[in-house]
Amino acid sequence: MKKNRKKKLKRKLSKKGTVARKKTALHKSKQFKLEEAFKDKNHLINYQISYDPIELDAYKDIVPEDIKEEMGFVLYPMCSNEPKKVIKRLLELINIYPAYPKTYNYLAIAYAKMGRYKKSKEITYETYQRFPEYLFAKVNFASICLENSEFEKIPIILENKFDLKLLYPDRDVFHVVEATAFFGLVGRYFVATEKIRRAQNILKFMESIDSECHITKILKKEIKQKLLVSSIKKKILREF
After folding, report:
1. Are residues 187 and 227 located together in one domain of the fold?
2. Is 13 contained in some domain?
3. Within this chain, do residues 187 and 114 fall inside the same structural domain, yes or no?
4. Contact 2, 9 (CB under 8 A)
5. H helices within the chain, ranges in order?
6. pLDDT value of residue 81
7. pLDDT tens digit sequence for 178-201
8. Would the pLDDT of 30 be above 50?
9. Alpha-carbon gap, residue 207 to 218, rounded angstroms
């Protein structure tokens, strides 16, 4: 059963991979310019966005290849589609490979999909405590702070670095999921702290790499709502 599921998932992903490789080639020819989104107007952000899987050097040797395949092709889809069934296996893997952060991230996703938000937040916080340099640990914990209106904590979590290249200067390639997750958070933080122009520049960038991503759409909606509220307030003030 598992082997058949694996084969089906691989076939699906291989089809997507053809499109993905084309997109990667397109984006690798670009140098992304985000200087307008940041305070330092002279700062130029240059890096590539990949649509193919990326394994970071710091974590690539922690788990064997068959476990990586199981996580990518089987467990990750199950986090959304069959979260109850996947939790036992994720806990087993955490017990065997406690230094692999991706498993904790998947576990938090699974609990959230089950509606167990408190447990999901506990896992998110634990992941950040264990792996403070792991991108998704930063993003997920900062997202909780954003939800709780604890805006002052977000620059601390991100080390006052609101771009991937600033946060990870040794990396030149980032996966599209990393980029949308990170910049979605940064954009929403800018909206919440009344930095709309910077949020709009972030949105332009996100639309250029994945306009259909739900995170891109959320940011777009929040910017629109903030501008609408601002417009109504100005109108009321003019009338008085």
Report:
1. yes
2. no
3. no
4. no
5. 2-28, 65-69, 76-81, 83-96, 101-113, 117-130, 135-147, 153-157, 164-167, 176-192, 196-210, 214-239
6. 97
7. 999 999 999 999 999 999 999 999
8. no
9. 12
CB 173, CB 47: distance < 8 Å: yes
Q: Evaluate whether residue 25 is within a structural domain.
A: no
User: Whole domain around residue 57: which residue ranges?
Assistant: 51-131
Residue that has been written with the tokens 């009344």 in this structure? 194
Contacts 24+ apart (CB under 8 A), 82-90: 83/109, 83/110, 83/111, 83/113, 83/114, 84/114, 86/110, 87/111
113-127 confidence digits (pLDDT tens): 999 999 999 999 999
Query: How confident is the model over 215-229, as pLDDT tens digits?
Result: 999 999 999 999 999
Total structural domains within the chain: 2
48 beta partners: 173
Whether the per-residue pLDDT at 20 is higher than 50: the answer is no
C-alpha–C-alpha distance, residues 170 and 29, integer Å = 20
Handedness of CA 66, 135, 82, 87 (dihedral sign): positive
Residue 97 lies in a domain: yes
Q: Which pTM was predicted? A: 0.81
Q: Which amino acid is at 90?
A: L
